[in-house]
Amino acid sequence: MATRQQKRLPRHVRERQMIDAAVRVFSHSGYHAASVEEIAEAAGISKPMVYIYLGSKEGVFTACIHREADRLVEAVRAVVRPHDTPELGLWQGIGAFFRFVADNRDSWKVLYQQARTQGTPFSGEVADARCRVMDEITALVVAGTRLPGGERIIDEQEAEILARMVAGAADALTEWLLENPDETPESLTERVMSIALVGVERFNSGDVCEA
């Protein structure tokens, strides 16, 4: 039962509580098994209030996707400081990505594992969220292949190709991170960065295999 004090909470605080609860419920129960009533109970509010603020269960799930994507992008941006070297910025950004996944397992299940399997209308929302994350990592890679004097280790188009490879590897390796308790965000970042930097060095030296 909501108290009088809870009813006076600002709208953005109330919505945050609802989405926090919904992420937990969707993560543990799955989209189809979860109910608005279960979400309301987890948030400590009435069921009608969920509908008033976020609409249907579909609206609640969409709000979860948007909020968790915002949190992931912000986590990557927050660790990159203006005076970092480009390589350090890339290292920090990839590390922040893996740390977010490791520290927010419920969020990751909703954003990537569950939403991907629900089809329309959520597939478009997930694709947009994934593009935003990929764009952040791409920008870090493009910056990370630029030397202090402005020269480039590889040209910008090649840097964008490398960025997609790094981002794709980071995306694919999240399951590995969650399934292998001995792996840490730091150790996985080191693996990805080592492979990426070796690739750049080989490409730059011309030591590449030709078909």
From TrEMBL:
<feature type="domain" description="HTH tetR-type">
    <location>
        <begin position="12"/>
        <end position="72"/>
    </location>
</feature>
<dbReference type="InterPro" id="IPR009057">
    <property type="entry name" value="Homeodomain-like_sf"/>
</dbReference>
<dbReference type="InterPro" id="IPR050109">
    <property type="entry name" value="HTH-type_TetR-like_transc_reg"/>
</dbReference>
<dbReference type="GO" id="GO:0000976">
    <property type="term" value="F:transcription cis-regulatory region binding"/>
</dbReference>
<dbReference type="InterPro" id="IPR054129">
    <property type="entry name" value="DesT_TetR_C"/>
</dbReference>
<feature type="DNA-binding region" description="H-T-H motif">
    <location>
        <begin position="35"/>
        <end position="54"/>
    </location>
</feature>
<dbReference type="Pfam" id="PF21943">
    <property type="entry name" value="TetR_C_46"/>
</dbReference>
<keyword id="KW-0804">Transcription</keyword>
<dbReference type="InterPro" id="IPR036271">
    <property type="entry name" value="Tet_transcr_reg_TetR-rel_C_sf"/>
</dbReference>
<keyword id="KW-0805">Transcription regulation</keyword>
<dbReference type="InterPro" id="IPR001647">
    <property type="entry name" value="HTH_TetR"/>
</dbReference>
<keyword id="KW-0238">DNA-binding</keyword>
<protein>
    <submittedName>
        <fullName>AcrR family transcriptional regulator</fullName>
    </submittedName>
</protein>
<dbReference type="Pfam" id="PF00440">
    <property type="entry name" value="TetR_N"/>
</dbReference>
<dbReference type="GO" id="GO:0003700">
    <property type="term" value="F:DNA-binding transcription factor activity"/>
</dbReference>
